[in-house]
Design a protein that fits this description.
Blueprint (H helix, E strand, L loop, with lengths): L2 H14 L7 H8 L3 H13 L3 E4 L3 E4 L1 H24 L5 H8 L5 H10 L19
Antiparallel strand pairs: 1-2
Helix pairs in contact: 1-4, 2-3, 4-5, 4-6
Length: about 130
């Protein structure tokens, strides 16, 4: 997953769980980066209009960032289902994190249509994942 995509996905999931501004330290832990690198990425995302970032307080997604985060989450959730139910991978969440920002929404939608109907798609608010913010 591209760096920016990973940050947007983490912020999207945290917001869906009802968090207010997400502290940079929590984002850093979730993406496995240093606080300094996280702050730098949040500033870049803010310049792109995807994040509202207040130093030391945290970040929230803008409407454009939320839309992108939702697309990323759909891809992530589809990949989780595919890696777990079809491929039987043990580390399905980590693999899904890596690919969610690379797979286009069209590919994710088509992949989802091939998955077994009994495979549940959890919401972002209750979906477990490897680096929980």
């Amino acid at each position: 997953m591209t760096g920016a995509s990973q940050y947007l996905l983490v912020l999207y999931v945290a917001e869906q769980r009802g968090s207010g501004p997400i502290p940079p330290g929590e984002v850093a832990d979730a993406v496995g980066r240093s606080p300094a690198a996280t702050t730098e990425m949040l500033q870049r995302l803010e310049r792109r209009g995807l994040v509202a970032h207040e130093p030391y307080e945290g970040a929230t997604l803008t409407p454009d960032g939320r839309e992108t985060g939702e697309d990323l989450y759909r891809s992530y959730a589809t990949l989780v289902r595919f890696f777990e139910t079809v491929l039987g991978l043990d580390d399905y969440e980590e693999n899904a994190m890596e690919l969610a920002g690379i797979v286009s929404p069209t590919v994710a939608d088509r992949l989802a249509s091939t998955l077994p109907l009994d495979a549940d798609t959890p919401s972002a608010a209750d979906h477990p994942w490897p680096h929980d913010p």
